[in-house]
Design goal:
The structure holds 2 protein chains of 2 kinds. Helix content of chain A is 28%, strand content 24%. Chain A is built from 11 helices and 19 strands. In chain A, the strands form 4 sheets. An 8-stranded mixed β-sheet of chain A has the order 5-6-4-14-15-16-13-17, with helices on both faces. In chain A, strands 8-2-1-12-19-18 form a 6-stranded mixed β-sheet, with helices on one face. In chain B, the strands form 2 sheets. A 4-stranded antiparallel β-sheet of chain B has the order 3-4-5-6, with no helix packed on it. In chain B, strands 1-2 form a two-stranded antiparallel sheet. Classes of the chains: A alpha/beta, B alpha+beta. Chains A and B meet through helix 8 and helix 11 of A and strand 3 and helix 1 of B. Bound molecules: flavin-adenine dinucleotide and zinc ion. Flavin-adenine dinucleotide (FAD) binds next to helix 2, strand 13 and strand 17 of chain A.
C-alpha cells in the first residue's frame, strides 16, 4: 500500500494527480479461504481488516454483491454516538466510538471523524424524564452525557425555534459524538484490509451455502464455489435472505429508511441535532449540505426506496423547528433497507450451523458501531468464541428472554 | 404514497393504514406445551422474505377493519387484497419477480397460507 501523506500529495501534484495507484486490488475469487465475509459494507470490511491486522487471519475474502459500501453504509446519515440506555449497548457502542478516535491515523485514510457534539431534543415532560433516565444510565457506564436546558439549546443552535408545535424543553447532550464520512470508513477499511492480503471481491453475490452434518463447508457464488469452514454474514437488510438459504429464520424485519440532503449553504449548524419525538435527525456536511434523516416506513420492503409519507411527516415539524429550512431546495433523496430487530439491538451470534456467524440487526443505527462491531466480530470468528462485548447480542436472547431493549430509549436509534 | 385498497372502503392513501406484518403467523395450537424455543420462534422470528409477501393490514384511521394484502416488496406493488375470511389473493398469472429474488427460497408467507390460517383469522 502506498502511504497517503502530505509528501505523496505533493509528489502526485507534480504529475497532475494522474498516477495515483488503485486503492485496492481486484483479485479473482480463489477456491478456498480460511474465513469468508459475506457483505462488503463497513461492518464486513472492518471485520476483515481486524481479522488480518489483529487476529492474524489473513487468508480472508470479502464477497460483495454490488459495490463496496453500496448498502446502508453509503446511505446513512453518519451519526456517531454512544448514548444508549442498556449496559450491553453502552459497551458495544462506546467501543465503536472510541475506535473512531484515531481511526484515520490507523487506516492512513481520512474518515473525517468530527466529534462536534450531539443534541437529542426533548419536546415534552415525558421526553425530559426519559432523557434524564438515559443520561444517568450513560454516566454510570462512563459515557459523558448531560441534560441541558432549553436556554443552552438555544445558545448552541441560535436558529432553533423553541416554541413551535413540538416545543423544545431541553436536550441530552453528548459532546464527543458527531459524524464521520461513511464512504471514507468503507474505503479506508477496504484499502487497509487489502494491503494485509484480504481479497475484496465486488459484484460477487452469495447464492447458497454448502452445509453437511451441521457444519459449514463452503459457499456458492456468482463467481463459482468456495471452500470455507468459517463464514461471517454481515449483510444488514438482506440477512434474512441468506439465513433462508441455510434453512433458518432471523428475528428481524427489513424496512425502508430514508434520508435527503439540501443544496449546499454556508455553515449554519455545527452540531448534530436529533429529535426522537418527530423522528428527524440533522447535521451539516463539510460540503455545506444539510443531511436530514427520516423515520422508517411501517411495511417490509427491499425496494431501497422510502415513502413520501415518511418524508412528509418529518419535513413539516422540521421547518417549524428550523424555519430557514423552508427556503432550501432538497437535492437528493434515497432509501436503504434496514434490518430491525424486536429489541432494536443488533445480533452478533453463532448459529445452528457450526462455523457460520451472523452480524446484523443494526437497523437504523449501526454506522456508529462499524469499527467496534468489526473488531469484536473478528475476535469472535478468529477465536471461535464470542467476544465478551458481543456475547449478550446472541440469537439465544430471543429464546431466553434476555432482550437488550433499546426500543423505548432510542426509538429512533441513529 | 402507496394506495391501499381496503376491501370495504376502496382505495385510500397509505397513511390511513397500519401494516401488521406477515399473515402466516399462527398462534401455536398447543401453547401450553411450548418450550422457550417454541415461544421465541413464534413471538420474534420472521420469514422477512424478499419478493412476494402476504400481509395483514388494518384500515386503522378508517373503518378499522383488518384484511390481507399480497404485495411484492421489491417493487412495493400490491398484487391483491382480500377480506380476512375470503380466499387469499393469488399471484397474478405470468407475474415476473425481480431477478434479484432468483436465489432466494420462496417464502412460506405467499405459498403456505392454508386452511388453518383462514380459520384463525375469522375469530
Ligand atoms: C437513511 C439511513 C440513515 C442512517 N443513519 C444512521 C446514522 O446516522 N448513524 C448510524 O449509526 N447508523 C445509521 N444508519 C444505519 C447504518 O447505515 C447501518 O446500520 C450500517 O451502515 C450497516 O452496515 P453494514 O456493513 O452492516 O451493512 P451494509 O452497508 O448494508 O452492507 C451489507 C452489504 O451486504 C451485501 N450483500 C447482501 N446480500 C449479499 C449476498 N447475497 N452476497 C454478497 N453480498 C451481499 C450488500 O450489497 C451490502 O453492501 C442509517 C441507515 C439508513 C438507511
Ligand atoms: Zn376500510
Amino acid at each position: 500500500m502506498s502511504r497517503y501523506s502530505l509528501l505523496s500529495l505533493y509528489r502526485h501534484s507534480r504529475t497532475g494527480h494522474e498516477n495515483w495507484p488503485r486503492a485496492w486490488r481486484n483479485p479473482p475469487l480463489r477456491p478456498s479461504y480460511d474465513v469468508v465475509i459475506v457483505g462488503g459494507g463497513g461492518h464486513g470490511l472492518a471485520t476483515a481488516y481486524y481479522l488480518a491486522e489483529e487476529f492474524g487471519v489473513r487468508n480472508v475474502a470479502v464477497l460483495e454483491k454490488g459495490w463496496l459500501g453500496g448498502g446502508n453504509t453509503g446511505r446513512n446519515t453518519t451519526i456517531v454516538r454512544s448514548g444508549y440506555l442498556q449496559d450491553s449497548s453502552a459497551l458495544i457502542y462506546q467501543h465503536g466510538l472510541s475506535l473512531f478516535e484515531g481511526l484515520s491515523k490507523k487506516l492512513n485514510f481520512n474518515v473525517m471523524f468530527s466529534s462536534r457534539g450531539l443534541l437529542q431534543l426533548a419536546h415534552s415532560v415525558h421526553d425530559l424524564q426519559e432523557q434524564s433516565r438515559r443520561v444517568s444510565a450513560c454516566r454510570q457506564n462512563g459515557i459523558d452525557l448531560e441534560l441541558i436546558s432549553a436556554d443552552r439549546v438555544k445558545y448552541m443552535l441560535p436558529e432553533i425555534n423553541l416554541s413551535c408545535r413540538f416545543p423544545v424543553m431541553g436536550a441530552a447532550y453528548q459532546h464527543d459524538a458527531g459524524n464521520a464520512r461513511h464512504d471514507g470508513v468503507a474505503w479506508g477499511y477496504a484499502r487497509a484490509a487489502d494491503s494485509l492480503g484480504v481479497d475484496i471481491i465486488q459484484n460477487c453475490e452469495v447464492r447458497g451455502f454448502r452445509i453437511s452434518g451441521g457444519r459449514l463447508e463452503g459457499l456458492e457464488t456468482t463467481h463459482g464455489d468456495v471452500r470455507c469452514n468459517r463464514v461471517g454474514v454481515v449483510a444488514s437488510g438482506h440477512s434474512s435472505t441468506l439465513a433462508a438459504m441455510c434453512g433458518f429464520r432471523l428475528p428481524m424485519t427489513s424496512v425502508p429508511l430514508q434520508a435527503l440532503v439540501s443544496e449546499p449553504i454556508k455553515p449554519v449548524l455545527n452540531k448534530v441535532v436529533m429529535s426522537n419525538g418527530v423522528h428527524v435527525y440533522l447535521s451539516q456536511s463539510d460540503k455545506g449540505e444539510l443531511v436530514i434523516g427520516a423515520g422508517a416506513d411501517q411495511y417490509s420492503s427491499y425496494s431501497q426506496r422510502g415513502s413520501f409519507a415518511a418524508m412528509d411527516s418529518i419535513l413539516s415539524p422540521l421547518v417549524e423547528l428550523f424555519p430557514y429550512i423552508s427556503r432550501l431546495r432538497m437535492l437528493r433523496q434515497w432509501g436503504g433497507v434496514v434490518d430491525i430487530t424486536p429489541d432494536r439491538s443488533p445480533i452478533l451470534s453463532k448459529t445452528e450451523v457450526s462455523g457460520l456467524y451472523f452480524n446484523c440487526g443494526w437497523g437504523t443505527g449501526g454506522f456508529k458501531a462499524t469499527a467496534g462491531s468489526g473488531h469484536v466480530f473478528a475476535s469472535s470468528i478468529a477465536n471461535e468464541e464470542m467476544h465478551p462485548i458481543a456475547a449478550p447480542f446472541s440469537l439465544q436472547r430471543f429464546y431466553s428472554g434476555a432482550l437488550i431493549d433499546e426500543g423505548s430509549a432510542a426509538g429512533v436509534a441513529h | 404514497m402507496l394506495r391501499v385498497n381496503c376491501p370495504w372502503c376502496g382505495f385510500r392513501e397509505e397513511i390511513e393504514f397500519t401494516c401488521h406484518g406477515e399473515a402466516s403467523i399462527l398462534r401455536p395450537s398447543k401453547a401450553e406445551a411450548l418450550d422457550d424455543r417454541g415461544w421465541g420462534e413464534y413471538v420474534f422470528f420472521k420469514e422477512n422474505a424478499k419478493g412476494i409477501v402476504l400481509e395483514r393490514w388494518e384500515h386503522s384511521s378508517g373503518c378499522r377493519r383488518w384484511f390481507v394484502a399480497l404485495r411484492d416488496n421489491v417493487t412495493d406493488n400490491f398484487l391483491g387484497f382480500a377480506k380476512a375470511d375470503e380466499a387469499p389473493p393469488r399471484i397474478p398469472k405470468g407475474y415476473v419477480q425481480d431477478k434479484s429474488c432468483a436465489s432466494i427460497p420462496m417464502p412460506k408467507t405467499a405459498s403456505g397460507y392454508g386452511k388453518a390460517d383462514k380459520k384463525s383469522l375469522r375469530k
